[in-house]
Design a protein that fits this description.
alpha+beta, 3-stranded antiparallel beta sheet, 191 residues
Amino acid sequence: MSLLSNIIIAAVVIFAFSGIRIVRPTHKALIETLGRFSRIQEQGFTWIVPIIQKSYYVNTTEQMVDVQPQTVITKDNLNAVVDAVVYYQIRDVKSSVYNVDDNRVQLTSLARTTLRAVIGQMAFSDANENRDKINQEIELILGKETKSYGVEVLRVEIQKIEAPQHVQESMNDVVIAERKKIAAKDFANAV
């Protein structure tokens, strides 16, 4: 009888300990019972019923998505290489788990297409000079589109907009010519 009672006590202890979950302050836990949403657990200690309940941890700190460099055709038909970064934060844990398969992948894809759409409506020189305007416009569009993801877009930053090499060389030649013209005028006025 003693062996059976020891086995039962050991099984109960193992069962109890296997349900312990600790949620860090930077996360929230989504708890499901038999595959259905049950509750959101804030930071700290929680216990779930093993086998019947399952927990998913969601990071709620500010996160960054690097939008890989891509070629965008501008309004003046130049192939500009654009690279950007999107900063976001999970605000609605339930939506971030159930409304989208992978919010990070979805946000990256949406940012890429939005960048192409916004910069594609601008001439290269306008896009290069108005980065703040582009950042704000993309942030506004992404903010609206990602509400259903449970995500808040905090800011968007364009890291670079580069023209093709031959266009860059032509632009440099124009700048050099302008500087020579100004220097010649100054020299003529000084004499």
